[in-house]
Amino acid sequence: MADIESRMEKTVNALKEEYNSIRTGRANASILDRLRVDYYGTPTPINQVGTISIPDARSIVISPFDKSVLGDIEKAIQKAELGLNPGNDGKVIRISIPPLTADRRKELVKQAKTTAENYRTTIRNIRRDGNDDLKKQQKAGEITEDQLKTETDKLQKLTDKYIDEINKVYDSKEKEIME
Predict the structure, then answer these.
(1) Average pLDDT, stretch 110-133?
(2) Which of 80, 93, 150, 151 is most buried per CB count within 10 Å?
(3) pLDDT for 116
(4) How far apart are CA 37 and CA 106, in angstroms?
(5) Up-side HSE of residue 71: CA atoms within 13 Å toward CB?
(6) 19 class by beta-carbon count within 10 Å (0-12 exposed, 13-18 middle, 19+ buried)
(7) 37 in the Ramachandran plot: left (φ > 0), alpha (ψ -120 to 50) or beta?
(8) E strands of 57-168, at which residues?
(9) What is the CA 150 to chain-centroid distance, rounded?
(10) Whether 39 contacts 73, CB under 8 Å
């Protein structure tokens, strides 16, 4: 049970991380988390080649530790297809976050809903694996039929708990997108 709960917890955390990369109308440094910059031949996370700051709600400023990677950071942001256009002044990269259109917001909500459903399916698959293990234990005589029923019920309650958590994460992301 502990292993199953841990897998479900990791699934919910993975969803939260994935949602961080979905751009909303507000500046958020986590949209750059998945970006890798070619730093002396090594793909390096953008937050390891410079400091990322949010001076206001609509802009992100990246100050590289080494000014020679300004162009590489700029290319990485453009290749990422986040809908962002970085500006380079020779010292820092400024990214202004354009407001989202109504159509784009609907598209992002649809994308978030699909992602949430994929993670719900993952939770259900973990439950199925747990049920299969319980049935194998019962066949092997390790647990009784009553214990099987009790453990199956516990597993279902655990599944419901984590699916509710996924729904809450989705609802908050939907509100954030539609603001």
Answers:
(1) 94
(2) 93
(3) 95
(4) 31
(5) 2
(6) buried
(7) beta
(8) 59-64, 86-88, 93-96
(9) 34
(10) no
SS3 of 59, please? strand
Residue 87: both structure tokens together: 């500006």
The 10s digit of each residue's pLDDT in 63-118 is 999 888 888 888 888 888 777 888 888 889 998 887 878 888 888 899 999 999 99
Q: Are 60 and 32 in contact (CB under 8 A)?
A: yes
pTM score, whole prediction: 0.72
Residues forming beta bridges with residue 96, ordered by sequence position: 59
Pairs from 32-40 (Cβ < 8 Å, separation ≥ 24): 32/60, 32/62, 32/77, 34/80, 35/76, 35/77, 35/80, 36/76, 37/69, 37/72, 37/73, 37/76, 38/72, 38/76, 39/69, 39/72
Strands across the sheet containing 86-88: 50-56, 59-64, 93-96, 86-88
